[in-house]
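ERR on first pass: missing label on line 2. Operator R.T. fixed the label and resubmitted. Corrected input:
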Amino acid sequence: MKRTRIRRLLAAGILVLLLFLLMRLTGPEREELTVLEAGLRDGLGFVQAGVTLVGNQVRGVFQRFFLFSGDPEAEELRRQIRDLEGEVVALREYQMQNERLRELLDHRDENSRYQMLTADVIGRNPSNWFGEIKVNRGAHHGVERGMAVVLPAGLVGRVIAVAPNTSDVLLITDHRSGVGAVVQEIRTPGVVKGVLNRTPPLRMVYLSLDAEVEAGQYVVTSGLGLVPKGIPVGRIVSAQKDEAGLTQTAEVLALVDFNHLEEVFIILDSVPGG
Amino acid sequence: MRILLLVLLLAVALVLSSTVLDFIRVAGVKPDLVLVLVVYYAIFNGPRGGAFLGFLGGLAHDFLSGYYLGLNAVALAAAGYAVGLGHLRLFKENHFVVAGIAFLAIILVEGVRYLLLLFLGVTIFPGEVWWGLMIPGGVYNAAVALLFHRRFYLSSTRGLLRIP
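pass 2 clean. output:
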């Protein structure tokens, strides 16, 4: 009896140790997925795409008949406002960039050269811990790890894993995400990080202490890293000094509505050779 | 038949979690249907059954997520085992007892996930986990457990999920 118990405990211990090892080996920082993982993702992708499609239709019906999350017309108008807000920030960024570059007599409008690929959102990470979506475009469509994912309203995230027909996108609201950004009006650089299940879901850190950061200012990508420059990210809600008193941190409201993502654009030339 | 039904329920819970449950997020969280299922099952079947279903559901959850394989398997197996320990002492007919257990199970699961993520090098402020995940998640899942308890209770005592 006692020996059986010890054996069971030993087996459970070995299993937990093996799982710990597996956890270590399967983090998202890996460059490539194994053949088994890629196959599994694509296979599950079909099921998820079907359920997401049905879910979107059901949501539409609920909204139409029961005003489940607001009038559909009002929601459409809200979406348009977000898109237009993003476009205004992007246009303002182009204008400022134009002025700067004209001064330098070296005008290169990089933003017009983006090659975009439309992708449908077919699934999400089932956990509350991670902000990830799955899209129905993969290596066969030219998608590569690191590519930026956007909407007219602004930055959505970046591709972190690619299977032949599907890809995983890490949202900027995920607590593991960090994007180089600047406050548009004052050109102060910082890093936009995701915050776990918070509203506003973004935080801009490492802002210079003497920068005049104020609520209402917009944040755009700085171009450091793989995400192209000038993509709208969000609007600053508040700013305060850090506890150490060396930098400032701003709470940022994202311009993209991450709870209702249905289609996104992947910027194919956001990685070298992409 | 019973096992098939459980596997089917787990599959439905996982597919819903990875697709449409995002539309019903409250305070930033969505319900953890797999955990609610594990809690129901552990209450009626004890620690070994609870840990087994938790492990199975967690592993499937991990494969669907695609990263940190084993994270949810360990967390949900621990919750299933802990809830199952009380299966002879708990008044499982009472909806509110089950809702309270679901609340505590979420605290335990998220606590284990937090510690495992720390072990994997993912650092998050404990305050964000407590106020952003554990409390809203606990309340939401307790409400979900309350909603389906009667159906699960009847199925476990007289229906398809009854132990033969």
